[in-house]
Design brief:
The chain is of the alpha/beta class. The protein contains 18 helices and six strands. Helix 6 packs antiparallel against helix 7 and helix 8 runs parallel beside helix 17. The mean pLDDT is 93.
Length: 342
């Protein structure tokens, strides 16, 4: 049970532990799929074919020719050689809006494919009530942390004390947690989904590949891991760039309010990109929250630089307010279980 208002910041490192691709993997896959020079009519890669299935619809939606989109794809493929993420490629080529359109299409296609191939399954596994492959995962530990010791009569307040801010495009948290509620409290899946939709705050600063069908909202929806949705182009429009998020004052305000209202902020697999930090905090956090930060696989210089940047941005001066873990996201939930429940 979580007794303090807590914000969980989900980054690519957390997604990787669920066997979802990180930024480098995503960019590499997109670059290879868009290298159409290696494809012929008889030797089209599966990834290239998956994207090409929607090019005509994308061209029709944005009012351009397919040839113009293919030129944008070539720009992406070349720029990938000097970029670290697909977001960087789009930002570098902001003079060509078709790069953004094609880049978002590729992200949506591969995110849905990755959902289908991840450790998070569409439905519960045999002999289990949870849609998760056998193994230890931070997502399961998060579910345990939320429900352990929390009476059913107080579940609404318990969910309201939590904010999930995910910098990934997948919907793993929102898909999985209702199943935890059904298991912990004996409610139906529909009841759990309605409860999660009403009480659990899950924010995606860069958007996601659509709502899950049970979630509230007006945007396009798609089932978890549906690799070939008929509404793919509508799903693409749910993805956002940094500039688009900064211009959305309502969404930006909700995001920063979730961070400012948290007594404890847990960074899980966060990449410490300056732009992402700017989205989270506009001015110093005057209430001096406690931070728990994973820094798995980071070199010592990068770790020190990230901590310095994080503390400066949040306005935290006391070292004892920042707890650093060099383990996995899973390890954070196990090593800090008592603290997270305090």
């Amino acid at each position: 049970m979580i007794r303090s208002k807590t914000a969980f910041i989900i980054g690519p490192g957390a997604a990787a532990e669920l066997h979802l691709p990180g930024p480098a993997d995503m960019l590499d896959r997109i670059a290879q799929a868009l290298d159409f020079s290696r494809s012929t009519a008889n030797q089209m890669t599966r990834d290239a074919a998956a994207i090409l299935r929607y090019v005509g619809k994308l061209a029709e939606r944005i009012g351009c020719s397919e040839d113009m989109l293919f030129q944008a794809a070539q720009r992406i493929q070349k720029s990938a050689g000097v970029s670290a993420t697909i977001e960087s490629v789009i930002e570098q080529n902001d003079d060509n809006p078709l790069v953004e359109a094609f880049g978002k299409l590729a992200v949506a296609v591969f995110t849905l494919q990755s959902e289908a191939r991840s450790s998070v399954r569409p439905e519960p596994q045999p002999n289990s009530s949870l849609p998760l492959q056998t193994g230890d995962y931070w997502l399961l530990e998060l579910g345990k942390l939320i429900t352990a010791g929390l009476p059913r009569t107080r579940i609404e307040q318990g969910l309201q004390d939590i904010a999930i801010i995910s910098f990934t495009y997948d919907r793993a948290v929102e898909h999985f947690l209702p199943y935890v509620l059904t298991t912990a409290y004996g409610m139906t899946l529909q009841e759990a989904q309605q409860l999660a939709a009403a009480q659990l705050k899950v924010l995606h600063p860069y958007g996601s590949v659509g709502r899950l069908p049970w979630q509230d909202g007006a945007g396009a929806d798609v089932d978890w891991g549906n690799e070939t949705p008929a509404n793919m182009i509508a799903l693409v429009e749910q993805l956002k760039t940094f500039d688009e998020t900064m211009r959305d004052r309502a969404a930006l305000g909700e995001l920063r309010a979730a961070v400012a209202g948290a007594q404890r902020i847990v960074f899980l697999g966060f990449d410490f990109a300056p732009q992402s930090l700017e989205l989270l905090v506009d001015t110093s956090l005057s209430h001096n929250p406690e931070l728990i930060v994973t820094m798995t696989g980071m070199s010592e210089p990068n770790r020190l630089a990230a901590l310095r940047m994080l503390k400066h941005k949040a306005g935290i001066e006391r070292d004892d307010r920042v707890l650093v873990s060099t383990g996995r996201c899973l390890d954070v939930f196990k090593d800090y279980a008592l603290l997270l429940g305090s």
